[in-house]
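Revision sheet: structure tokens.
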Amino acid sequence: MSTAFRTIKDIPKEEYFAPGNRLCAGCTAATAIRQILKASGRNVVVVTATGCVEVATSYFPQSAWRVPWVHIAFENAAAVASGIESAMKALNRKKKSDERIHVIALGGDGGTFDIGLQALSGALERGHDLLYICYDNEAYMNTGIQRSSATPYCAAATTCPPGRLSSGQSTQKKDLVAIAVAHGIPYAATACPSYPFDLMNKVRRALDVEGPAVLHALTPCPTGWRFDTDKGIDLGKLAVMTGLWPLYEVVDGVTKLTVQVPRREPVKRYLEVQGRFKHVKDEDVKRIQERTDLLAAKFGLGPVRQ
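Predicted:
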């Protein structure tokens, strides 16, 4: 499992996430899941919370999943994954087997940041040997683009619409990786399917560790973010290149940047290609840029390109 992906030839040809699912055109969550399963291989059990991915991949009587897959409620993906991990440990002891079957829990930002945070915290605190992955499209996209605590400042959503007295989302995005690291887990990281080798190698490193791991993947959503369906991968790259989404990992408490950005793009370039930010004023852009500059300094990213 620990072999790193370096070139296209290293990537397995097997597809464990079937094409023809009903996710939206241009959905980068689908791209991320395809990469995740290529990295994990078939020796895995996936637990998925209610959300975009669940409803679009498990329409009865068909399934897009070519690995063992469980759907449970919105709030308890991490709890069910914990039970599966514990059950397999008990079965392996009974059979005296050393075979390691990996458990991956998958949830969107709604099912992770908000509704499922308690179950996730419990799984991390108990030390279950599992990987929890949040595919973050920054709102409750499945139920109508309502804001979540992952929705960025000033973004428009149906429950935080911009107007004469509002600039959209009024709070800052929650730091999921910092919350996970505060539990003392051995591995946590950010990722984006726009950087497939970075994402797949992080999945493998996360599965290699003994104990809980968390991967937080930004997955641009053409429906909720309001951009052209062919622009999702480019937008993910732009999130990284502006410094809004640093790609890093935290191994046993030590933080390491995994994608260097010597010269950052101004955040205005990222905001102006998304309909959810079309209302922002110059002072809003300035405030977002200033906050991004502080984040970039924390991770050692380069200055903004002039």
